Amino acid sequence: MNLTPHSPFSSKASQLLSWGHWFTFANIGLVLLISSVYLFADKAPSTFVGWFYMLITWISHTSFITFCAFVLTIFPLSLVFPYPRHIRGMAAFIATLGIVVLTIDAFVYLQLGYHINPSSLPDIFVLLWETLVGSSTFSLIIAFLILALILTFELLAGNYAWRHLAELKSYTFPRYATGTIVTCFALSHSLHIWADANAFFDITKQDNVLPLSYPTTAKSLLARHDLLDIERYEEAHALNVGSAHSKYSAPIIAAECQPNTQQTMTIYAYNDAQSYQQIASNALQSDNHSIFELDSVLRAGNSSDALFSLIYGLPSYYKESILVQQQVPIWSLNNNLLSVKSSDEFTFIPTKAEAKLAIVEANSKTPIDLSKPFIALDLSTHRSTILTSSAFTNINLYAKASGLMQPHDITYTAISSVFGCAPLAQQGMLGSNVKTRSHAEGVNFTQGVLVAFKKDKITLVDQDGNFKQMSAKEGFVLNGNLDIPFLIQSIKTLKKFTTPEAQ
């Protein structure tokens, strides 16, 4: 192959290489514009250093990724296939494809909080389908319009750069822009090394904000969502779940519901394991063959946290704030659904003889009418943070449920399916209906530990940002990396009812 300076091949290749740099420079501007979405998708930094790091990382990282895309795709094509018209067309197509992927990733990150990756593809497909097909025709038109605008930009940028190549070569500002990008790249990595060594979370919590950047750790994930008290972490490695981070903001309940059944239901919560075992043994050995034992209730090891979830249909993340406000369960207002018979923290919730759903703190002397709908749970305190507890019931929908269920799932299901008030449960609780759900997953936050489960796998993230994954059925520890997209989605679900300041 003749590559002398005067050969036609060398001349075309040199021109295409120069054109490619200007084409890439134009795309860096477009990528910076689109990637700015990531900067507004999360909570803003709280310090000047955090803001500075965010700005220089945005400039350098997105520019670097764009340049790498040019080097891996358009540059080799220019060498092996140096035909300007064809290269410009292929470059416009490749660049459009890359920009479209970036746009989709930015939209997914804005909506779901994580980037496109294999483990989250089902959720992403559902999001895109609902956005483009499940919504109005206007959304579909906007999507095609964006695609047309991107392709038009690429074609115009490529043609303009080729036709004005000699003029563009006379400009000097690209060398200053290149120097700025390189400086920002070096500064951002230096700052990140310093922040990682000094536990400066205002920087490290930005890991994985931009695509193909630093991988998110459990520690930085908790810090990013304000579940890690940075000051106490530095002093005593403790996790803060106080009102500063979990202030409950009661939702506005738009749904009105009158229970569509004359049935009543009682939930018996036992704080003493021995009493529960005695009652459960007598009930399961009785002649009543419609009583079923459940062994898939995942709940907090602290009985007060578990009882709170049962009463409110919420994770115990909100317990402190709600008890300070003495807030009656919001879903039970303006109806006659709930009655609570409590001997301790929840005495401010009224006991109503005519209520449809009664939650009773029970003991060995509490009578159970086995002929009426009920579910009984062992909520006694254990040393472990989270455990799979026992329960028994005569309600078929709980007995037939597959996968794990939490106490707030039990209440959610009762309101939604037993009493036919699904909109009320959706607006005022954070659980799932064990009768209608397609797969079992959930989140809790108890005793300073984030708990998330999907199917049989439970993930625990402690106050130091360390994590453990285990099998719910067998109890053994599972190896493998954190499912970061699932944890992010779980945290977003957990914080649904926090005030904007607390998020």
From TrEMBL:
Keyword Transmembrane helix: yes
Species this protein is from: Pseudoalteromonas peptidolytica F12-50-A1
Origin superkingdom: Bacteria
Keywords, comma-separated and alphabetical: Membrane, Transmembrane, Transmembrane helix
Record-annotated Inner membrane protein YejM N-terminal domain positions: 9-247
Protein name: Inner membrane protein YejM N-terminal domain-containing protein
Keyword Membrane among record annotations: yes
Alphabetical list of InterPro entries matching this protein: YejM_N
Entries under Pfam families matching the protein: DUF3413
Spans traversing the lipid bilayer: 21-41, 53-79, 91-112, 132-156, 176-195
